[in-house]
TrEMBL record:
One Pfam family of this chain: Phage_TAC_7
InterPro entries named in the record: Phage_tail_E/E
Name by which UniProt lists this protein: Phage tail assembly protein
Organism name: Histophilus somni (Haemophilus somnus)
């Protein structure tokens, strides 16, 4: 909903989120749910953490909800 500009000056207006695999879950980092969610979003979108830091919280929440549905076996 809220576009960002990445570190290379590209305007990002939408995220492509691929279904996570077990190896992605193993790569997740973070000491709490929010950090782990952001880590997984970075992994499955290909964005670097610095770009994710610029995302609006509404967009992070929406991406987290999509990933949660995927983990439950539902379509996003």
């Amino acid at each position: 909903e809220h576009p960002i500009t990445d570190g290379q000056g590209n305007n990002i207006t939408e995220l492509t989120i691929r279904r996570p695999k077990v190896k992605d879950m193993r790569k997740m980092r973070g000491d709490n749910d929010l950090e782990q969610s952001i880590s997984l979003i970075a992994i499955v979108t290909g964005l670097v953490p610095e770009d994710l830091d610029e995302l609006d919280i509404v967009d992070v929440k929406r991406a987290s909800e999509i990933l949660e549905k995927m983990q439950k076996g539902k379509s996003a």
